[in-house]
Predict the 3D structure of the following.
Amino acid sequence: MDTKTKIFWWTMGFLVFISFGLVAYRYLIKKDYIIQAQVDCDPYNEACFVWNCDPESDEEGEMCTGDPEEDTWYFKVINKNASQISSCDANDEGCEALICEENEPECDFTLCNEDNKSEMDSLECSDPITYSVENPIGEECEEGDEGCLESDDESSAEDGTEEEPMIQTTEDMISAQEETGEEVGNAAGVLPIEE
């Protein structure tokens, strides 16, 4: 092999080595690239992608559970620079790795529209107005949902429709009976003692 050929191959090898080094530095150390991930979306305020379970699927994560809240997922897509993602545990409720901070560069959300819906197989777009009409907020409280019940109590207090307090003690029942002239029972249904 002559000298010119050796120089050519040494130069090519050096350039390949340098290019691999620069790519490794950018992606592995600096993490200068954009990631896309699916995050929760608020169907009351945003046009979300709608994923529905597959009733014919047997695969974990795709089959239906029978619970409408778990069988339907509303999501949007976040585009974020990997270097800006914090390394907290994704299962931790306090982990906010996939959010866009105020004025954060290279971070935005993609909502559902007719153009990008075709890129996602078998997905639909939600309409905030239609969703709000079909699912009014605070329509019913589920059993055991104390937060919901408390908010209902607050809203009734704001409306001026407070419930009358229940009489708990015998002294309260006797004084109420003297004021109204009627027999009054307590919460347990016990009538006051007649004097």
